Amino acid sequence: MESGIDSDDSGPFFPVHVLRDYALIGDGERGAVIGPRGDVVWMCAPQWEGPAVFSSLVGGSGVFAVTPVNPRYVWGGHYDDGTLIWNSRWVTTDGIVECREALAMPGERERAVLMRHIRLISGTAPVRVLLQPRPGFGSQRVDFSRSDDGVWSGDGGGLTLRVSGMGHANVLDGMLQQDIRPEPGGEHHLVLELSSKPLPAAPPAPADLWAVTERAWAASVPAMDATVAPADARRAYAVLRAMTSSTGAMVAAATLGLPERAEAKRNYDYRYAWIRDQCFAGQAAGAGGATGILDSSVHFVSERLLTDGISLKPAYTVDGGTVPDEHTIDLPGYPGGTDTVGNWVNKQFQLDSFGEALLLLAAAARQDHLDKEHWLAAEQAVAAIEAKWDTPDAGIWELGNERWTHSRLSCVAGLKAISRYAPAAQASAWSQLAELILRHTAATCTHPSGRWQRSPADGRIDAALLLPAIRGALPARDPRSLATAEAVRKELLDDGYVYRFRHGPGPLADSEGAFLLCGFNLALTEHQQGNTTEAFRIFERNRSACGSPGLFTEEYDIQQRQLRGNFPQAFVHAAMLETAHRLAGPPTP
User: Fold this and answer.
1) How would residue 4 be classed by pLDDT, with cut points 50, 70 and 90?
2) DSSP-assigned letter for residue 346
3) Angstrom distance (rounded) from CA 53 to CA 51
4) What is the mean pLDDT of residues 125-147?
5) Rounded to an integer, what distance in angstroms lies between the CA atom of residue 171 and that of residue 181?
6) Is 302 helix (H, G, I), strand (E, B) or coil?
7) Who contacts 296 (Cβ-Cβ below 8 Å, separation ≥6)?
8) What is the pLDDT of residues 497-548, one digit of tens each?
């Protein structure tokens, strides 16, 4: 592997990689994507939806790299168990060196603190540190100045920046550059602060930052020992925690513009909190009694219901604000994609969000974690369903407005679930509403073969139609549930992976990648129907669809064994987490 530190007029060149090579660190308020050469290729500040300071992943500029000086090396790495503390590791022809990296926890809304800890493992392995932040997706520069104690600071793009640990750096065209030659057993700390408010008077002590961060992770991530894959379940929970703000909102992904299919113009900005995804994550955490993410999800979703009621949006900023309109920015993009900021979801109505909200609140009720305000939020969701259950909506896949079967059955499942915990009068009324919607949906959306079809006007099978039985809209052994599962196996399953639906007569892979969410849902379906061996086979197949850091995207290219779409995708980690919990127990009725 070449080091990528040769430079030209545009600065150092770190070639873009396939997504499976990247790791994510996060603190809940923002994330940083780290490449195999030790380069931070993506980071927005001060928060998730802010402009990128480092954006080379999508063709922008800005660099913060710790990379071997020796151009001949191989790359590896791992997370500390139950955290998103990443350890880059390089084996050169002369030695082995590691760089431990994290965003300081617990995260602050206005200030990001990125820590890098360089350790020589054996031999000699000098590294080169390069720093050139470029706020505003590369449109702004930062001019650094050095204090007497070797700390560099500067301003740009509405941010104040400070870096310690580069006291001997040279400045080359606005870039700080320093070679570090750790001694055997030696170490070197770098701390970069980026803030939208004035920084504290003195830089933080690295040892204190690491100690607090390690304690925060230990307190945040449960052991997950009662799952079929404890280590992977802990990592999935850590990903969800790292993507959940102090507001309770969880972003759908850390990135924007990563193509789901090359040159297909399916490039989206997922740095916002989708109500549905938030509910998936809360339910997944609640399945194993992990109430941290469950409580955060209930808090955010309840606030949105109480504020917006029947006008609930499918997605919000982490502050509960409106998602910006979709527009492009002037960057080349990740290969095969374009850089799109904002999301058209802000104009959509998605009925199933109300059903998922009720399922989330019911999961919290099972843990006795609902208070009066949460019950008021449930009433708002029920009122919205009662008023709009027969209104066309964009559905789970955010397509054109139709009377999607999945959306209506999600409302049935939510109404039935919350009714089990509601006062008698409400429980009766809500159960009756569920039965009304179920009867109407059965009359209009049952395929002649006996399975569910996508909508009254669309007779195709859709993997989303596995969810109603999983969530209790109707029994797992109901003939419609059995027929739907069989149709998914027959028409949408390929080598253990599941596609959403068939776009046309050609091969499934001609239109899109397999959807990992759908694969984990089929594993849950098999488990629910008592097909234990098949449930584990599909679970293991889908949890292998990641790179060595163990992170998932939304889609998986079966033929090329590559990750597709924004990175990492939170609801896939939630699905893996829930499936790992469910498969450890008996089939759920």
Assistant:
1) very low
2) G
3) 7
4) 96
5) 19
6) helix
7) 244, 248, 250, 282
8) 999 999 999 999 999 999 999 999 999 999 999 999 999 999 999 999 999 9
Which of 164-173, 233-242, 259-268, 510-519 shows the lowest mean pLDDT across its residues? Answer: 259-268
pTM for this one? 0.96
Distances 37 to 75, 89, 390 between C-alpha atoms, Å = 7, 10, 53
350/363 Cα distance (integer angstroms): 21
Please list the residues that pair with 557 across neighbouring strands. Answer: 562
pLDDT digits (tens, 9 = 90+) for 412-426: 999 999 999 999 999
Q: Quick one: tokens of 229?
A: 């894959």
DSSP state letter for 587: P
What's the CA gap between 167 and 144, in Å, rounded? 12
Give pairs for 228-233: CB < 8 Å, separation 24+. 228/536, 228/539, 228/580, 228/583, 228/584, 229/543, 229/580, 230/580, 231/81, 232/543, 232/550, 232/576, 232/580, 233/288, 233/576, 233/577, 233/580, 233/581
Using an 8 Å Cβ cutoff, are 130 and 177 in contact? yes
Amino acid found at 48: W
CA distance 568 to 558: 18
| H runs (alpha helix) in 192-229 | 206-220
Q: Which helix (H) or strand (E) holds 33?
A: strand 31-34
What φ, ψ does residue 321 adopt, rounded to 5°? -85, 180
Task: Starting at the earlier edge strand, list the strands of the sheet with 127-132.
Answer: 63-68, 127-132, 175-180, 170-172
Give the pair of three-digit tokens for residue 48: 């998730």
